[in-house]
Each structure stands twice: as C-alpha cells, then as structure tokens.
Write a structure and sequence with these properties.
There is one protein chain. This protein is α/β, with parallel strands linked by helices. The strands form two sheets. The chain has a seven-stranded mixed sheet with strand order 2-1-3-4-5-6-7, sandwiched between helices. A four-stranded antiparallel sheet has the order 9-10-8-11, covered by helices on one side. Strand 9 and strand 10 form a beta hairpin.
Length: 361
Amino acid sequence: MRTALVIGTGLIGTSVALALSARGIRVHLQDADPERPRTAAALGAGTDESPDGPVDLAVIAVPPAHIAPTVVGLQREGRARACLDVGSVKGRPRRELVELGGDLSRYLGSHPMAGRERSGPLAADETLFEGRPWVLTPTPETDTEVLNLALELVSVCRAVPVVMEADAHDRAVALVSHTPQLLSSLVAARLEDADDAAVRLCGQGIRDVTRIAASEPRMWIEILSANPGPVADVLAALAADLDGTVRALRAMESADEAKRAAGASDIEAVLRRGNAGRDRVPGKHGAAPAEYETVAVLISDTPGELARIFADAGRAGVNIEDVRIEHATARQAGLVQLMVDPVAAPVLSAALRERGWSIRQ
C-alpha cells in the first residue's frame, strides 16, 4: 500500500490516517465538514488535497447509514482499488451496498474494536488500535487483493485481525458494545434529578458504570439505528433478568423468613452469574483474566505525583498491570490503586513506604 484515502476524519478515521502516515503511506483526507480534514492534516494525518488518481485503499469512516452510498460512489468513479469501512455495524451496510448495485468483490466491511468517549480529529491517536481486535467480514465474493490490503491496514495499525460473518458480528457487538452504552446511559440518567447529597456520595463504582455515558448521543443514534434488532434482543433478556431481580429484592422485604431466604438466594444467583460472565472477559494481551493484587497509595492532587509513583515502582522492579484513581470528594488528594502480580505486591508496598508514600490497606 502506497496511497490511501480516508473519508471521515473523526476519532477513528483520523487515528487510522495517523497510523498510515507514520508508516510513510500518502494519505488523502476527506470529510463532509471541510474543517475536520484541515485539522487532521495539521496533526500529521495526511493531506486534505484530493488524490490525482485512484488510491490503493479507501477507508470509509462515516456513520453506518452513509457507508453503502459512499462505497458505491467511490466504485463508480474508480477512485480506489479497494474500499474498506470501519463502521460499528456490518450487516445492514453490506445489504444496502448490494441493493445499490455495488461491487462486493472490491469491498470489505471491518470494525476496529477501539474507541473512547471523546470524538473528532483532536481525540485521535495513532496507537488507538494497538493490540485491539479488528473484525474483518469478507464474503465469498471478496477479492484476495482486497483482503490482503485490509490485513496490511490492520498490521500497520498494530491491531489483531478477527474474521467473522457480518450478522454474527452485529449480534456480538449488540452484547459487548451497544447494550453497555445504553445501560451506562440509563444508570447515569438516574443521577440527573437525584438529590445533591446523593450525588456527592458518588464513588468509583458509579464512575466505572457511567464512564461511557459521556459519549456523543448523535453518534450512538446512528449506530443503534443500524443495529436495533440485536440490541433489542439483548435488552429483552436483560429486562427478564431485571424483573426477576426486582421480585427477589421485594421478597427480601417480606416478613416471611422463607420468602426472604428465597429472595436472597435469587440475588446471590444473579451475582454469581455475573462473576462467571466477568471471568470470561479477556485480560491483558487477550489472555484469560489474571488475578492481581491491589496496592493502594494516597497521593496529593499536584503535578508530577503520578509520574513519581510510577518511577518509584519501576525502580523497585515491579510492573504495574493496571491502575485506577479514586478522587477524594472535597479534598486535594486521591487514592491510586496499583494492580500488580500478587508476588510483587509486598515488594512494591515496602519500596513505596521506604520512599515516603502512604500505603492504604
């Protein structure tokens, strides 16, 4: 691949362009909003000038409803040897492409499983896809050259290719991406009219659950409009679980000891099912989830504190596997939770104490 055209210079499109440009590929940028390609170009993602002739690969990073028309337009104008989209829904755009008379042999649907709450070119990062699954949905009609270009793109972005059938992908993301977004928003919505006293009690749990509720609503309307059926199926199953959970909690209010015990048993079953499901979520580098031990350290809210604690952990020869920060309400301090290998936990605790850090159990 020597040349590429990225259509749609938001978070994903610009991140792709940054990764391609870093490898010396000439990238042309296009967007319905002319300001966004200029911004992306200023970040080093490529040029907002139109290509002189057909590019090797066109990457379509537009909302799902616009994927098929964009691909058909590129194919009819002969602007690219291959077209690949990076939308979060795969089945409907492919069917719309067929309806519009598009050429499936020169097109491949894909979905990099990466993102963040912020959107737009200024949120882009060429390392966004590193180590992340990148779903490819080839069909029997897909030309080998197109598949090879897609694999090259995934390699350049340092992602991990995963081949799936389009509708299977849509059912999967309904469960692991689209439904969590709605649930996060539903929980966060309960805070809108909550008492100030209750909101002041927000801790790490509510922050974790509502983190993705900060996402752009218009973007999610476009995504959910292209995959409503599978998402509704998951939510229907969840609704059944919620109904049962509500009945169990009501039973725990009963004066009847047997009903209270039955309700508690049902709640325990839900929590244990949650444990089992959480255990299936891939851990570091896609491996099975590891059991880490937490070393909690009190830090002041001043510049350089995080860098200093990481440096001290490095001097102790301890690798930080994960990190969480819980901010203290109304205090200029916070609690940093350092997740490490259990064997390394006492080593890290001792080393940090020696360097003056306050360790919390």
